[in-house]
Design a protein that fits this description.
5-stranded parallel sheet, 453 residues
Length: 453
């Protein structure tokens, strides 16, 4: 298993002594099962693993008929699975729990019993069909597992971990890396753009740095996602697939706001709202909503029907964009590595930043305004986050983020944003291919530092 930041969160949860169950939620193939099983192996004397996508009928019957007596239920469960569990030293894993909501509902009583720890994993957890007629347990904590972020990628591909440490230290000290390390980090960043953070793709890429194998792995994952859309999307399946197919084209536009007219002249948000929700809930896409009046509480001014839609993994976006070409004959991979791709690279880099922000626990928001009569009011800020601000006694302020894929750019939108919102604005960030530098309240960070913003 690759080193994951989520593992530390699980350790913190375990230290609480079984007061809650932990639900690991994430997209298919993101590594939820591997993480859960490895955590059980390392941290517990024994464990019991149930995969509810394939669990035996007698196990389901046990949940349906025997929960009135938890001691009897647990005894029978151990007998049926041939697993002996030790009180307070054992972990029970409910994998793919969305396939059997009754097991999820049972968590309330199992946690109250207190003998064992319980870890759930699942996708599409919040879909109405998966919560219908059950009481969601308040004893359940939830944690998202995303594709590996760039730092985790460095841990996976650089066994020493030294480069990841150097990047973190440079950001903390607000000093640039030595040029040689900067070039090395930018090279690794570009490899990450192409391979992405899906464990299956990284494993295929391997020590041989086989982009062809990684691309084949990503195509398989995309096939799984498309299959899931039609298997679980219900009456909205076709709409979900239509939005998904439009993501690369929408992101290639200068203004990346999702335009429903691309789905048909009569298409409107209200007809596709459930499909948008499905993509976000499945963790296949990252939805970035517009904050119309940016303040510390972005949700207060966010617009449900105005958003940008990113793929949850940039490596998958690369394969989706160029899926009509054989990677062995595709100049795109070489072009990205050599910084020669040009205008299309902007959408990949912005998608990458969205991925890093999401992995760091941020909800995604952006800001834009347009005025035909007053150009000073026309601006677009790629992302907004809230950060403590040194020059305001460390009180939270709005931090705008601009993403630049090339070394030549302007910061007119950032200038206008600061002028318009003034004291609401804290540190401003520009993520670009160049070295770190600080200019008063504005930080220019190399793209490989997006995960620490």
């Amino acid at each position: 298993m690759y080193k994951r930041k989520a593992y530390e969160k699980l350790l913190d949860w375990k230290a609480e002594g079984g007061r809650t169950a932990m639900l690991i939620e994430g997209a298919r193939r993101v590594g939820k099962t591997t993480l859960a099983q490895e955590f059980a192996r390392r941290e517990y004397s024994s464990s019991l693993y149930l995969d509810f996508s394939v669990v035996r009928p007698e196990i389901r019957t046990l949940f349906e008929e025997q929960l009135h007596s938890i001691p009897s239920f647990l005894n029978q469960l151990q007998i049926l699975t041939g697993t002996r569990l030790e009180p307070r030293k054992s972990l029970v894993i409910f994998d793919e729990v969305q396939a059997f909501p009754r097991a999820r509902e049972a968590i309330k009583h199992l946690v109250a019993d207190g003998r064992f720890d319980y870890l759930e994993t699942g996708s599409l957890i919040s879909l109405r069909r998966n919560v219908k007629s059950i009481l969601i347990p308040s004893e359940e904590r939830r944690m998202d597992l995303n594709p590996l972020d760039f730092e985790e990628w460095l841990w996976a591909t650089d066994g020493s971990g030294l480069l990841a440490g150097a990047i973190e230290e440079a950001f903390g000290a607000k000093v640039p890396l030595p040029d040689a390390l900067h070039k090395l980090a930018m090279r690794s960043f570009r490899e990450y753009l192409l391979v992405g953070g899906m464990p299956q793709s990284i494993q295929a890429y391997g020590a041989d740095k086989d982009f062809f194998a990684a691309d084949q792995a990503k195509r398989q994952i995309l096939d799984v996602y498309k299959s899931d859309m039609f298997k679980y999307g219900g009456e909205n399946a076709a709409k979900v697939a239509a939005i998904f197919d439009q993501i690369p084209g929408q992101l290639s536009r200068h203004e990346k706001r999702f335009v429903f007219a691309s789905l048909g002249s009569e298409a409107r948000y209200r007809e596709y709202a459930e499909a948008v929700y499905w993509l976000g809930d499945s963790h296949i896409a990252n939805i970035c909503r517009k904050a119309s009046d940016p303040s510390v509480g972005f949700g207060l001014s966010s617009l449900e029907n105005t958003f940008k839609c990113y793929l949850a993994d940039t490596g998958l976006l690369v394969t989706s964009v160029f899926s009509d070409r054989d990677v062995t004959k595709n100049p795109v991979y070489a072009a990205i590595l050599s910084e020669q791709l040009g205008i299309n690279e902007g959408m990949l880099v912005e998608n990458y930043v969205a991925q890093q922000l999401k992995a760091s626990g941020n909800k995604l928001f952006y800001y834009s305004s347009y005025s035909r009569d007053d150009s000073s009011q026309t601006m677009e800020i790629d992302f907004l986050v809230v950060r403590e601000f040194d020059n305001a006694a460390f009180k939270p302020r709005v931090s705008p983020i601009e993403v630049k894929s090339t070394s030549r750019y302007s910061t007119k939108s950032l200038d206008k944003f600061k002028g318009k919102f003034q004291k609401r604005v804290g540190t401003q960030y520009v993520l670009h291919p160049r070295q770190l530098r600080v200019d008063s309240e504005r930080m220019y960070l190399p793209l490989y530092m997006a995960h620490v913003v």
